[in-house]
Amino acid sequence: MILPIEKGENNEFLRKKSLLIESVDLPAGRQGEKILDLAKDMIQTMIRNNGVGLAACQIGMNVRMFVINEDLTKKQIFINPEIFKMSKKTEICDEGCLSFPNLFKKIPRAKSLKIKAIDENGKEFKLKAKGLFARAIQHEMEHLDGILLVDHDQN
After folding, report:
1. In whole angstroms, what is the distance from residue 147 CA to residue 109 CA?
2. For this structure, is 95 an active site residue?
3. Range 105-114 average pLDDT
4. What CATH topology corresponds to 12-151?
5. How many of the other CB atoms lie within 10 Å of CB of 109?
6. How far apart (Å, rounded) are the C-alpha atoms in residues 109 and 92?
7. 20 to 30 A from 19, CA-CA: which of 57, 64, 79, 109?
8. Could you say which of 6, 95, 140, 142 is catalytic?
9. Domain ranges in the chain?
């Protein structure tokens, strides 16, 4: 199901720090929908809106989960993600956000990172990301902490 995307810098859903997910089998809060059903809806919503990533807060859910369209062919679910290493090398690129259509800002981000999270089967995984994939992860991680594209100074 395609979900409406929350928009605006004063939006309460976008500004809240997201809560940990205790189990992938638990209801996410919307009419008993389970976390994995929510993730599938998020993937459909992200694709329909030509997004690279989408955090749960962007569809009004206060849980620590995001989805990424890694290379435009592989969709990945990150539940309770934690970045545990970031490169010192950074690059500045234009970045957009589905919650702020038509707004792009030049934002410095680490060129690569290592992240751990829980997958759709409830199993922990670790991976290394670089380039656009690493940038998208950093962007979505900020969403989980209530940090938005508009909070970055224009460089």
Report:
1. 14
2. no
3. 97
4. Peptide Deformylase (3.90.45)
5. 22
6. 6
7. 109
8. 140
9. 12-151
